[in-house]
Amino acid sequence: NAGVTQTPKFQVLKTGQSMTLQCAQDMNHNSMYWYRQDPGMGLRLIYYSASEGTTDKGEVPNGYNVSRLNKREFSLRLESAAPSQTSVYFCASKAGRATDTQYFGPGTRLTVL
Amino acid sequence: QKEVEQDPGPLSVPEGAIVSLNCTYSNSAFQYFMWYRQYSRKGPELLMYTYSSGNKEDGRFTAQVDKSSKYISLFIRDSQPSDSATYLCAMSAENSGGSNYKLTFGKGTLLTVNP
Questions:
Q1: Mean pLDDT over each residue of chain B, to the nearest integer
Q2: B53-73 pLDDT, tens digit each
Q3: From start to end of B1-115, where are the E strands?
Q4: Which of A93, A106, B65, B78 is the most exposed place for a label (fewest CB within 10 A)?
Q5: Is some CB atom of chain A closer than 8 A to the CB atom of B98?
Q6: Does A41 contact chain B (CB < 8 Å)?
Q7: Using alpha carbons only, what angle is made at residue B104 by residues B35 and B6, rounded to the nearest 5 degrees?
Q8: Does A98 contact B95 at a Cβ distance shorter than 8 Å?
Q9: B107 close contact with A: CB closer than 8 A
Q10: Residue B70 — φ and ψ, nearest 5°?
Q11: How far is C-alpha B76 from the geometric centre of its chain's CA atoms?
Q12: Which of residues 24-43 of B touch A (CB under 8 A)?
């Protein structure tokens, strides 16, 4: 049982390049989330998927797109990376009720030059 | 006003000290309160969870919620160097248009426990 896995662990992009961050969970959770974490800003929600087939914007969705590929996988895409998107990205999942624990992946450290 | 306010610290204490970490919130719809611990270069992990006013104890950790004051605290007794981490408070509301799916986090408090 691996929990929440993210790939890649590290990535360096040039401004304007695109990339997709991958996330998978093996806990049969309904809800999945993408956050970014910046110094002094805490964890900010980018997008979430309450259940398979649905996605919704979070606090900071501009410049990102997501795909809930199936119940296990939730990807985050940067179409044209900008230096402001340099951050640590965390994927998370939870079963679906308000009382359920949200489990986090190990993070992807992204630098945009 | 931010929905959740948390003093970012940093907080540095000697080993064995009692540590108090706090968050205030403005949204009275928040019903569920959590504390996450995040070690350097790792993802956050759930430390404590409570949904009622009062105290909840787990070993050296006590979570306290005061809904009337919109204030939550985490106390760490007999702090250890292994407690050195960032502590994030998080909250969620009852299901209301899907809001129970989302957590709102504080910015986190960096704690260092010195041997």
A1: 90
A2: 889 999 999 999 999 999 999
A3: 4-6, 11-14, 19-25, 30-38, 45-50, 54-58, 61-66, 71-76, 85-93, 104-105, 109-114
A4: B78
A5: yes
A6: yes
A7: 60
A8: yes
A9: yes
A10: 55, 60
A11: 11
A12: 31-32, 41-43
Distance CA(A64)–CA(B39), nearest Å, equals 27
CB contact under 8 A, B44 and A58: no
Q: What are phi and psi of B101, to 5 degrees?
A: -80, -15
- CB atoms B108 and A58 under 8 Å: no
Of B94, B103, B107, the CB nearest to A102: B103
> In whole numbers, what is the pLDDT of chain A averaged over residues?
93
Which pLDDT does position B90 carry in this prediction? 93
Backbone phi and psi for residue A82, each to the nearest 5 degrees, phi listed first: -125, 155
Determine the residue among B45, B95, B101 to mutate to test chain A binding: the one whose Cβ has the most chain A Cβ atoms within 10 Å. Answer: B101
**How far is C-alpha A85 from the geometric centre of its chain's CA atoms?**
13
Q: How far apart are CA A30 and CA B106, in angstroms?
A: 24
